[in-house]
Amino acid sequence: xxxxxxxxxxxxxxxxxxxxxxxxxxxxxxxxxxxxxxxxxxxxxxxxxxxxxxxxxxxxxxxxxxxxxxxxxxxxxxxxxxxxxxxxxxxxxxxxxxxxxxxxxxxxxxxxxxxxxxxxxxxxxxxxxxxxxxxxxxxxxxxxxxxxxxxxxxxxxxxxxxxxxxxxxxxxxxxxxxxxxxxxxxxxxxxxxxxxxxxxxxxxxxxxxxxxxxxxxxxxxxxxxxxxxxxxxxxxxxxxxxxxxxxxxxxxxxxxxxxxxxxxxxxxxxxxxxxxxxxxxxxxxxxxxxxxxxxxxxxxxxxxxxxxxxxxxxxxxxxxxxxxxxxxxxxxxxxxxxxxxxxxxxxxxxxxxxxxxxxxxxxxxxxxxxxxxxxxxxxxxxxxxxxxxxxxxxxxxxxxxxxxxxxxxxxxxxxxxxxxxxxxxxxxxxxxxxxxxxxxxxxxxxxxxxxxxx
Amino acid sequence: xxxxxxxxxxxxxxxxxxxxxxxxxxxxxxxxxxxxxxxxxxxxxxxxxxxxxxxxxxxxxxxxxxxxxxxxxxxxxxxxxxxxxxxxxxxxxxxxxxxxxxxxxxxxxxxxxxxxxxxxxxxxxxxxxxxxxxxxxxxxxxxxxxxxxxxxxxxxxxxxxxxxxxxxxxxxxxxxxxxxxxxxxxxxxxxxxxxxxxxxxxxxxxxxxxxxxxxxxxxxxxxxxxxxxxxxxxxxxxxxxxxxxxxxxxxxxxxxxxxxxxxxxxxxxxxxxxxxxxxxxxxxxxxxxxxxxxxxxxxxxxxxxxxxxx
Lengths: 454, 310
What we know:
The complex is a heterodimer. Chain A is of the alpha/beta class. Chain A is built from 19 helices and eight strands. By secondary structure, chain B is an all-alpha fold. Chains A and B meet through helix 1, helix 3, helix 4, helix 18 and helix 19 of A and helix 2 and helix 11 of B.
């Protein structure tokens, strides 16, 4: 084809203008279209029971496939067999990005009918009216669960409303290497029970270890605000509109951390959470392991030598005297079309026998009172096997667990990060402890005020 | 077709219907559509959304209201923003020259036709195919206070205390730069190998006849010939340097170094926008500022290229 057959090109000078006009139009259309997506579209609506469980419901779990596929599928099948009119569509979502997916679904009005929630996601969805009040819809449910777990799913200022059924729990315990305790001149049968004693132990370990092993991980994010609560440091003012942790107690905590870090009581890199605690504990380089029963099981499988030296005790609880409780839960979507089926299914999954069965498959504990009373959770064996002892210690502590030991809702990720940044600088010796705590409180207050304005 | 079509309208319509598919006016758009749709859906749309969000106080779960330039004012008055912006620019200023020059030197070395050179070419390229997370973990073990480098330094009594490569903000940033350069060497080396293959051997022969040694031939023959490629590598590495996140995250943990002192702009964006309390509006404003910074450096690269052509 010769050039003369082609349509005449517009003069060169006109092209940039036309391109500019087209680009502006495209940008305008896109901006206008995206602006439409600005409004959050909460998944509202009322929930009314009909008294008959029927219909198809969706059920979403958090990272239970493929390890617990058989268990969960078994639950679903047994439920469907008992309720012929109900069909349960189960989907499992990986842990990474779970909350983000929930947010996206909530915005799109596509939350599942029965959804596995952790503490963070529960609070946010419930606060925005996306979850049904199960205490009102299912009045008999309260007595079935451990009080601490049931209370966890209430919201401040919403009376007795409860917005999710408690499911499985992992309590906090204390794990440590008995041999390293002895090598540091400490009595393994007298573990620390307060934060101050814990630091005294770390001090002794740093003195005796000669740099061969450390006491615990320095990362302040894993220790705050829990340590402060256990020391009696108030986190918020009574009105809960300002942070109140700028106290001599918190300053003393930072000073102690700084001194211990300088002495080598913590691995240097652990300040940044880039260290793997399992690896350090499993190779005998750390005295205190992470405080969860699941960790004990991991060590049993991966580092049998260190496992033989591992001892378990009640968590450091300080002045509180009890641990907090972080139960996984099952929320019911407020606008579900089949509330009876959804409630019946959530009750089925969280009932005593089914939760005890789950705890046989995984290192989790039942939130159901009946489940926790199972003899399995009172059995300490001969007191030598850390895994068995951990189960008994964890269950015992759960019975008295209370919410005042939990991280307050106001202590968001952003607040935690801001506090940790200031504390890290102090631990490194880049600023003094009092300045760090003051700045941390100012930053946290700013974030809290900012959140309250919206 | 002639300009003067005297056939009846019905016949003309039938002719149009018989026209093969690829001759219809909308056919090109049909072929463009899939690509265009993905660009609009995954590129332009999110970008436009970010622009809109940056003028609002939106949070993760709440639609925001229009707040004008508040987010931009807040960013410009936020010391964290300036630390992160400073770190990002410093990253670029150190990493780009290294990634423009070192891969060229490496390419010249492995271009030589000697037995077994293929092994070296592959070896230098290996870090490129390794995942950033694996690379970060390997370097973490190398640079820790009880890692390889510090153990060697201590044994040789070069230092009396371990060097805080990962626990000092400045050294952490330098360590992250080192990882970026190490990982980018092989990638850009391949670019240069292609460019070097296009340098006519006759130019080298003529220069050699004129008495130029290897260094002069490199400076006066090789470099001018691969200059366009150097500019391309410079622009590409500048853009990726401004987007650096993984290296800092893996080496410095989720706080971005002690006190967050090694945070880069993408790091800050993630921190501000993440979680249920994430400030989508503010994070979008910082993203836009990062975009402008990237655009500025890209335009600079383009201007340099133009100046070179002239």
